[in-house]
Amino acid sequence: QVQLVQSGGGLMQPGGSLRLSCATSGADVDVYAIGWFRQVPGKPREGISCIMSGGGSPYYADSVKGRATISRDSAKHTVYLTLKSLKPEDTADYSCAADLGGGPRWCSGVVEPTTLNIRADYWGQGAQVVVSS
Length: 133
Hints:
Number of helices: 1
Number of strands: 11
Radius of gyration: 13 Å
Structural class: mainly beta
Distance between the termini: 40 Å
Oligomer: single chain
Strand content: over 45%
């Protein structure tokens, strides 16, 4: 049974940094593309970053480009999303998702603004992030 276990989140200061973790429990993280999403109540879910299975150049949405870094620690079966220079508009529920063998097509879909419902094999439990002073 594969599970995505998220950690991180909470109350953050504007201008600060955030690191979210997404661990693949029961599976090798390297065989999955991992995408990060966020959603504000009443608004569509937004895909913000993606890393392909097997590595390669990461993908970022324009809304976080230059502020976000996605990385993978294969030994810990974990993918991290670091977001710096936090803004109040970064407040959202953040979730990770995994696609077995996912490559450029899946990751492109993650960060494409017009993608409404992307298919994923697994989803993390979500984590609330509030950016406020």
